[in-house]
Each structure stands twice: as C-alpha cells, then as structure tokens.
Specification:
Elements lengths: L2 H18 L2 H13 L3 H11 L1 H13 L9
C-alpha cells in the first residue's frame, strides 16, 4: 500500500469502520497506518478499537509523549 493511498483513504476507512462497528477493519486500518510510518494514527486507531488493543494504543501514544482521551 502506498503512502499516498494510506494518507488519502485510511482516515475514511477508519471512520467507516468506527461507524459500522467493524473491528476487524479498524485493526486493519491501524496496521496500514503503521506500515506507512504514521505512528500517531496507528496508535489512535488502536485506542478506538478498544479492549487490549486500546491499551496497546495508549502505550504507543505514551511513547510519543501523548495521552489517550476517553471518549465520553
């Protein structure tokens, strides 16, 4: 997957996955962001996925000097 495709489409794919509750697609989007070197977007997507993945995402955000906000 090219960086251009990732930057143009993955945020849309992530939004669709969140709206439809498609956790597998959400995790695939996190992998795509990671492959493109988009560490923040990958971590944020993991947080959105919830569960153990949210914990991994929060840890990745902490490595970037950031914290995850709860949605609610």
């Amino acid at each position: 997957m090219s960086l251009l495709r990732t930057m143009r489409c993955e945020p849309v794919d992530r939004a669709e996955a969140v709206l439809t509750g498609d956790r597998a697609a959400l995790l695939a989007t996190a992998v795509a962001f990671d492959a493109a070197g988009c560490r923040y977007q990958s971590a944020r997507t993991l947080v959105l996925a919830g569960g153990d993945d949210a914990e991994r995402g929060a840890a990745a955000l902490a490595e970037l000097g950031l914290t995850a906000r709860s949605s609610g």
